Amino acid sequence: MTDRALAVVRAGALTTVQDLGRPGHAHLGVPRSGALDLPAAALANRLTGNPPEAALLETTLNGCAVRPRSPVTVAVTGAPCRVTVDGRPVAWGAPVRVPAGAVLDVGAATRGVRGYVAVSGGVTVEPVLGSRSTDLLSGLGPPPLTNGAVLPLGRVTGPHARADGAPQPAPPAELVLRVTLGPRDDWFTREAVRMFTSRPYRVSVAGNRIGLRTEGPALERARPGELPSEGMVLGAVQVPPDGRPVVFLADHPTTGGYPVIAVVRTADLPAAAQAAPGTPVRFVAVRRL
After folding, report:
1. What is the mean pLDDT of the chain?
2. SS3 content of the chain, % helix, strand, coil (to 5)
3. Predicted local distance difference test score (pLDDT) of residue 39
4. How far is CA 160 from CA 39, 94, 119, 167, in A?
5. CA 118 to chain centre
6. Where are any strands of DSSP class E within the chain?
7. pTM for the whole thing?
């Protein structure tokens, strides 16, 4: 067996393999998937000398621990956390050399939700439709990590960054999501639309990679009944029967029958990936995406 591999010591609450995703397959019913916080993932790859498309690990809340079979350079970005190698503290947000057989432990997030662990050479599980990303909704890609799993690593293609650390945006204390209203805002009363863009919400504990669920005032319909299923896009704000908005993230379904009141600007979605349960949310109406 090749020594270019990574053994999973502690899988964590939910750790998946992610890359840039598999766009362009919505007509087949396949979501884009990919890292939820793309800037954080891109930074981790840059710090380790990987190309932007290299696959890496996305952790959720309590991190993970892995043991490389050969010396590697790693970088942990995204949600701030404690990082150790064989129990010794090392830098977060910077390239770190990990000897063969040592345990890299990515601790629980002190703020935010999702961490990104890039390893020099990238994770080279078998691609599906051009991507190595785990898609929780469709089941495409590798399964979420489990203790004892072994992940192959690719060949190192470039030197790691010569940096002591790199600036990253902090997880949001308040999540401000700029939205363009429509296409189905006319399915809601005028008061509901006004409430949507003026009243505060909070991030629900029920969210996942499919969507960020909110808690707050229910939005009243102006029309009864349901829509025929129609296409959904990344950032669509769908309103289910309970009236609480759901922001679709990378693993969202490609179609849906609940009305979409608005669409979030793509640039605001990385912050949504790091908004912990209880974080205040404001939807701000703008004219264009």
Report:
1. 95
2. 10, 35, 55
3. 97
4. 17, 10, 10, 16
5. 14
6. 5-10, 16-18, 56-60, 64-68, 72-78, 81-85, 88-90, 96-98, 104-109, 114-119, 150-152, 175-181, 201-203, 211-215, 230-231, 236-238, 246-248, 255-256, 260-264, 280-285
7. 0.96
